[in-house]
Specification:
By secondary structure, the chain is α+β, with helices and mostly antiparallel strands. The chain is built from 4 helices and 17 strands. The chain has a 17-stranded mixed β-sheet that branches.
C-alpha cells in the first residue's frame, strides 16, 4: 500500500531526531573529555602541602622597634682663622705746598704715659685689638672642636637609632594562580603600593559560584614597621567586615562585634602580617635561619591573638615560569588542637615578595596563591610624585656678592672673615634617607 504523507513526515522527523541525538552525544562526550583534561591539569599542577618538618626553635623574636636613620648632625662651625691686621686708613691728601713758619716744640720731661693715654694711643689700641682677636679666635676654635656642646650635637646623636632592620618591599601589581582544594581557578591578584610612609594592600581571589573574596589593608609606617589603620574583609556576596586600628584610643574596633581590644605596638592584620614579615626578612635575611620564630599580634575581623611564625628553611617552588628558590615560613599552632595552618614562601629573587601562600582550614580545605608571571622584581611605580632627592647633593647657600670696595681707601686691606656661627644649625640642609 502506498504510504500516506503523514507517514512520510513522521519518518523524516524520526530520522532528524535520530541525527540530533548523535550530535548531542558527540557534544556531551567532547565536553566530558575537556572537563577531564582540565581536572587532570589542575590536579597535576597543584603542589600539595606536605607536612613540614618543624625545626627546633633556636630563637624567639618579639615585636620591637625598627631601625630608623636619624638626620645627620649639622656641621660644626669652623674655627676662625687669625684675623688680618687692621688696615690703616689712608690719610687725606695734604694741601699744596705753602711757605709756613715752623716753631720749635718746647722740651718736656720724659714721663710714663698714663693708663688712659696708653689706651687711647693708636699703636696700643691696635696691639690690644690684635691680642683680643687672637684670644677670641683661639677660644672659638676650642669651643668648635669640643664635641657635644650646647651649639653642636655630638657625633653619637647623628647615628642611626638601634633597632631591627626593616625594608618595605617594592610596589607592584602581583598576579597569582589560585587553587581551591587543588583545582585551578581564575587568577588572583595582590595590589601592593607603598611610598615608605603609607601602604595599601588588596588581595583578591575569585571563587566559582561564591564570588570574589577580597582583603584590604591600609595604613602607614611607624616605629614598629607597618601599622594598619583599617582592615576590610569581603567574602563573596556577604557584607564587608571592618576592623579599625584606632591609634588615638589605643584600641582595635570591629564592626562585626561590639567588642574591642587593646591595641599593642606592632599589631598587624591577617595580610599586613605577610608584608611585615617580608620587610623584616628583606632588611636582615641572615637572621631568619631554620628554627628562628617571630611573634606577631594579629587582629582578624572579630578577635586578635599572637601568631608564632617560624622559619622552616629554604625550598624550591615550581611556577609556570620555572623554579624559584624561596624561604618557607609557617605559623605554628596557637593552642592545643589548632589545625588551621598558614604557609608563606618568600623569594629573594623577587625582592622577598611572597611567591606562594597556602591556608589550610581545619576541615582540610586548601586555598593557594602561586606566583604567575615573570620571575623578576616588579618595577616600583612612582607613587609619591616627588623626585627622589635621597641621592642628590646637598644644596649650598648662594654666594654673597661683596659690596664694591673703595679703590682709593680699601684696596690695600682685605676684609676680615666673619666668625659668627649660624643662628640655627637645624636649618642647614641635610641628606636624610627616605627610610626603612
Amino acid at each position: 500500500m502506498p504510504t500516506s504523507a503523514t507517514d512520510r513526515n513522521a519518518a523524516t522527523l524520526s530520522r532528524r531526531s535520530h541525527a540530533w541525538r548523535w550530535v548531542a552525544v558527540f557534544v556531551l562526550v567532547t565536553v566530558l573529555h575537556w572537563l577531564a583534561a582540565q581536572w587532570f591539569e589542575r590536579h597535576h599542577t597543584a603542589q600539595p602541602v606536605t607536612p613540614a618538618h618543624v625545626p627546633v626553635q633556636v630563637r624567639l623574636l618579639k615585636p620591637e622597634r625598627i631601625e630608623q636613620q636619624a638626620k645627620p648632625a649639622a656641621p660644626a662651625a669652623k674655627p676662625a682663622p687669625n684675623p688680618a691686621p687692621p688696615a690703616h686708613s689712608k690719610r687725606a691728601p695734604s694741601p699744596p705746598h705753602t711757605l709756613q713758619a715752623l716753631a720749635l716744640p718746647e722740651a718736656h720731661p720724659k714721663t710714663a704715659a698714663a693708663p688712659e693715654d696708653a689706651a687711647s694711643s693708636p699703636v696700643a689700641s691696635d696691639a690690644s685689638a690684635s691680642s683680643a682677636s687672637a684670644s677670641g679666635g683661639a677660644s672659638g676654635a676650642a669651643q668648635a672642636a669640643a664635641p657635644g656642646n650646647g651649639n653642636t650635637p655630638s657625633a653619637q646623636a647623628a647615628q642611626a637609632s638601634h633597632g631591627v632592620k626593616f625594608q618595605v618591599p617594592p610596589s607592584g601589581e602581583l598576579e597569582y594562580d589560585t587553587f581551591f582544594n587543588g583545582a585551578r581557578n581564575a587568577p588572583g591578584t595582590i595590589h601592593w603600593k607603598s611610598d615608605g610612609q603609607h601602604y595599601e594592600m588588596v588581595v583578591s581571589i575569585p571563587l566559582p559560584f561564591v564570588g570574589a573574596f577580597s582583603w584590604t589593608s591600609r595604613g602607614h609606617v611607624d616605629a614598629f614597621g607597618l601599622a594598619p589603620d583599617q582592615y576590610i574583609e569581603k567574602r563573596g556576596h556577604r557584607p564587608e567586615d571592618f576592623t579599625v586600628f584606632n591609634r588615638n584610643l589605643k584600641q582595635i574596633i570591629f564592626t562585626r562585634t561590639p567588642n574591642s581590644l587593646a591595641l599593642p605596638d606592632g599589631a598587624q592584620d591577617r595580610f599586613s602580617m605577610v608584608m611585615q614579615l617580608a620587610s623584616l626578612v628583606r632588611g636582615d635575611p641572615d637572621t631568619y635561619k631554620p628554627g628562628v620564630t617571630r611573634e606577631f599580634y594579629v587582629a582578624d575581623n572579630d578577635s586578635g591573638e599572637t601568631w608564632p611564625i617560624t622559619t622552616i628553611g629554604d625550598e624550591t617552588v615550581s611556577t609556570d615560569r620555572g623554579y624559584v628558590s624561596a624561604r618557607h615560613f609557617m605559623r605554628l599552632p596557637r593552642h592545643d588542637g589548632d589545625k588551621r595552618r598558614i604557609d608563606v614562601w618568600l623569594a629573594p629573587s623577587l625582592g622577598w615578595l611572597p611567591v606562594r601562600l597556602v591556608q589550610t582550614e581545619p576541615n582540610g580545605t586548601e586555598v593557594e596563591l602561586l606566583w604567575h608571571g615573570a620571575l623578576s622584581v616588579p618595577k616600583a611605580p612612582d607613587v609619591s610624585g616627588a623626585p627622589d632627592t635621597s641621592s642628590a647633593p646637598t644644596p649650598s647657600a648662594p654666594a654673597q656678592t661683596p659690596p664694591p670696595a673703595d679703590q682709593s681707601s680699601e684696596s690695600s686691606a682685605p676684609a676680615a672673615p666673619s666668625t659668627a656661627a649660624p643662628e640655627n644649625p637645624a636649618e642647614l640642609p641635610a641628606d636624610a634617607p627616605l627610610h626603612p
